[in-house]
Specification:
The protein is of the alpha+beta class. The protein is 22% helix and 21% strand. The protein has one domain. A hairpin with an 8-residue loop joins β3 and β4. The radius of gyration is 15 Å and the shape is globular.
């Protein structure tokens, strides 16, 4: 955990985690899921680990599971997250702190534990990941389910991976930790 404070974004320093522990717990749960090396088997959003994760979150087998992985991370951290199977549902006016490359006025900047949304060419947000580090540089570090590894910019992947994402590719960021009610 302490190592998280000393990491550098490329380039720039990270924002420190708040002292309430909620954000640290969500990040820790994402890292635990990452350590399980969750992967699909045979594609189509299926596999023993993927099915178990979707079931725990309250979804239906075979659904895209990026959002379900975020639900599980929040719930395991003790934060009553909504049961959102669709990525775009996280980003309403109350929770969105970053949109279209800018911080929303009177809102805190993106922080570890926030939900990061991507459109990747679509009209609406179709993929979410959990923010691990938001630095002063051009990149943010995220952990996401149903994505690809090695920095792959793909909406539909086969596993749970940690990737650096260019901030200019991020459509929106939502703060759920500080206000989990939707």
């Amino acid at each position: 955990m302490l190592a998280l404070f000393g990491l550098l974004a490329v380039p720039g320093r990270l924002h420190a985690l708040p002292g309430d522990g909620g954000r640290a717990r969500v990040v820790a749960e994402a890292q635990k899921l990452l350590a399980q090396r969750i992967r699909e088997h045979g594609g189509a959003n299926r596999g023993p680990q993927v099915d178990a994760l979707i079931k725990e979150a309250g979804g239906q087998m075979g659904q895209p599971w990026c959002s379900w992985s975020v639900v599980v991370e929040f719930r395991r951290a003790g934060i009553k997250a909504p049961r959102f199977g669709r990525a775009r549902d996280w980003f309403d006016k109350v929770h969105t702190v970053w949109r279209a490359g800018r911080q929303v006025l009177s809102r805190p900047p993106p922080q570890p534990g926030d939900v990061v949304g991507f459109t990747w060419g679509a009209a609406v947000i179709g993929h979410v990941e959990l923010l691990i580090a938001w630095g002063t540089g051009p990149s943010a570090r995220c952990i996401g389910g149903n994505t690809g590894g090695g920095g792959a910019l793909q909406r539909e992947g086969e596993g749970m991976y940690e990737n650096w994402r260019l901030k200019r590719m991020i459509a929106a960021v939502a703060n759920v930790v500080d206000n989990p009610k939707y």
